[in-house]
Amino acid sequence: MKKATGLGRGLSALIDDAVRPAKPETASGAGVREIEVGRIRPNPLQPRKNFDEAAIDELAASIRERGLLQPILIRAVDGGFEIIAGERRWRAAQKAQLHQIPAIVREFDESVTAEIALIENIQRQDLNAIEEAEGYKQLIGRYGHSQDAVGKLVGKSRSHVTNLLRLLDLPDGVKQMLLRGDISMGHARAVASAPDAEQLASQIVRGGLSVRQAEQLAKQGKSAAAKSVPAPDGRPVDADLAALERQLGDLLGLRVKVAHGKAGGTVALHYSSLDQLDLICQRLSGEPI
Fold first, then answer.
1. Which of 36, 65, 87, 287 is catalytic?
2. I want to staple 160 with a disulfide (CB 3.0 to 4.6 A). Which of 47, 66, 156, 234 is the partner?
3. Are 257 and 267 a contacting pair, CB within 8 Å?
């Protein structure tokens, strides 16, 4: 079972709670150490995938003139070091051709490393919406956090986490529109559950529609789809069932499908990993998460 961390108390609390007694090779790392740049590698769990090269060039120019003033946070891994927070500074230091940079070495497990990397980027507002959503999905699926716990961890509301997770179900074309800035987060949320999301998003871009107009358009599309798709017994899909599916999906952080007929029906929960399946089993059995 996952050990409790500094959920909801900010990045510094999480770091303080996660510090363990240093191993011999990190014993001298109680404070800031000078670490060879070549011994440091990026964190594969880093939620941010896109880096602004122009901004990194500007930072590199500053580092050449004044040095790296703020140490990065790393952990010892396989004879080298892995970045927990500060990859942008590390990249800029490489461009500035520094051989060593100041760093703080801490012993964090993989879960805490992922949490800190996500928190740092969100607090700095460096992630785009899709990267942020992928980070939330990782914390939920890989480390067993609930949506509410993730919200507390990053200082966001549960509804914010839920809305971002919905973006991951968008067609790739709509995701690209969002990343390019053709549509806003509000537009993306509006079309997320529409049956023809990509077509709807293109219509929003062509017409320069506001978020409110997009929501009305998506609502009309869902109403039309509900009337055209028959239920198993031949009746139109009940709009109340669709609303129930969304409500249960928000609560569980999963895609939910409700099939209802004259003799009853079924509720299907869709999971994307074995970790997520394990989390469902724990919730159904009443085990603590």
1. 87
2. 156
3. yes
Residue type, 151: G
H/E segment holding residue 42: none
At 8, list the tokens: 């909801």
C-alpha to C-alpha distance for 124 and 164, rounded to whole angstroms: 17
**Sign for the pseudo-dihedral over CA of 226, 227, 229, 233:** positive
Residue 143, Cβ neighbours under 10 Å: how many?
Answer: 19
Cβ neighbors of 113 (< 8 A, separation 6 or more) are 43, 45, 75, 82, 84
**Fold entry, domain 10-125:** 3.90.1530
Select from 157, 173, 42 the least CA-distant residue to 165.
Answer: 157
Instruction: Look up 87 and say whether it is catalytic.
Output: yes
Q: How far is CA 65 from the centre of its chain?
A: 35
Question: How many C-beta neighbours within 10 Å does residue 77 have?
Answer: 13
Q: What is the pTM of this model?
A: 0.53
The ranges assigned to domains in the chain are: 10-125, 229-289
Instruction: Kindly give, in sequence order, each residue whose CB lies less than 8 Å from that of residue 169, ignoring residues fewer than 6 positions away.
Output: 192, 255
Task: Look up residue 45 and give its amino acid.
Answer: L
pLDDT tens track, the chain, 289 positions: 444 444 344 444 444 443 333 343 343 445 789 999 999 998 887 777 777 788 899 999 999 998 898 899 998 988 899 998 888 899 999 999 999 999 999 888 877 787 777 777 666 656 778 888 888 888 888 777 888 888 887 788 888 888 889 888 888 899 888 888 888 888 888 888 777 888 888 888 888 888 888 888 887 765 554 444 444 444 444 666 777 777 777 667 677 888 877 778 888 887 777 767 777 777 777 665 5
Q: Measured between alpha carbons, how far is residue 149 from residues 105, 146, 157, 186 in Å?
A: 27, 5, 10, 24
